[in-house]
Design goal:
It is built from 13 helices and nine strands. By secondary structure, the chain is an alpha/beta fold. It is elongated and about 65 Å long. Bound molecules: S-adenosylmethionine (SAM).
Length: 260
């Protein structure tokens, strides 16, 4: 069927998503798809992908990839889809990790933080840890595909790690009850353990503080957690040195050092 005719039949799916899926099935860039409405494609290849999208599956899982910090990462439903705001955390780690340090990325997921850090700061020794074996498989695949030097370790926070010099983490931080209010695309498709650590949303963060001290910690936090984080940090031997805001001026990255 002609691309333009296919587009007209795809009402209900965002036209931008249709173009990206057409790019994947034709193996051409999306700019080619947009400029070649008269070309023919096999609709049977597109149909099952549209079906999945109409059922609410995130586009990134259907495509099996997403972009992070200018690189392509493989993703599937074993990992959280890397978010643009996490690039702010990576930026802060690139700037602040001491030369030659061993950096641990706690809750590495797709490996987007660990792999990017290893590629942008080749002087660092980067270790990615996760409690999900499925996530570690995806992270290792991304590391191989992008030729990054990262060691991945199965670990509940830092329990399997001896050396900790600098910690970076985008931990699960959403309170359990709040997860139920999220968009179905997130709630029903992304791994529950990537979203929530428990009823308070602070459980993994507290574990990080308890196990990481005295190493400096860079943490991504949720919208509105900036007030609570200072108190939790203080109770667990850390102090907030800086709070970095995202493009919408919302505090999203906390820079912490050991208080004792
Ligand atoms: C919010 S996701 C972050 C994924 C990735 N770093 C990113 O920024 O896209 C949190 C990750 O922490 C992992 N995780 C949850 N609880 C954990 C624990 N107790 N120890 C280690 N990893 C954990 C999850 O499996 C998930 O991959």
């Amino acid at each position: 069927m002609r691309i333009d005719d296919l587009r007209k039949r795809c009402r209900g799916v965002n036209p931008r998503d249709v173009d990206l899926l057409l790019a994947d099935v034709t193996g051409k860039p999306v700019t080619w798809v947009i400029a070649h409405g008269d070309e023919y494609v096999d609709e049977a290849m597109l149909e099952p992908l549209l079906e999945r999208r109409l059922k609410g599956e995130p586009l990134q899982y259907i495509r099996g990839k997403t972009e992070f910090y200018g690189r392509e990462f493989v993703v599937d439903d074993r990992v959280l889809i890397p978010r643009p705001e996490t690039e702010g955390l990576v930026e802060a780690a690139i700037e602040r990790a001491p030369r030659g340090a061993t950096v641990i990325d706690i809750g590495t997921g797709s490996g987007c933080i660990a792999v990017t850090l290893a590629l942008e700061r080749p002087d660092l020794r980067v270790i990615g840890v996760d409690a999900s074996i499925g996530a570690l498989a995806v992270a290792a695949l991304n590391s191989r595909r992008l030729s990054a030097k990262v060691r991945f370790v199965a670990s509940d926070v830092l329990t399997a790690i001896k050396r900790r010099e600098f910690i970076v983490s985008n931990p699960p931080y959403i309170a359990e009850a709040i997860v139920e209010t999220l968009a179905t695309e997130v709630r029903d498709h992304e791994p529950r353990m990537a979203l929530t650590p428990g009823p308070r949303g602070m459980e993994v963060i507290e574990q990080i503080f308890d196990q990481a001290r005295p190493a400096p910690v860079l943490l991504e936090i949720s919208y509105g957690q900036d007030q609570e984080i200072a108190g939790v940090a203080e109770a667990h031997g850390y102090k907030v040195d800086d709070m970095l805001k995202d493009l919408a001026a919302i505090p999203r990255v906390v820079v912490l050092s050991a208080a004792w």
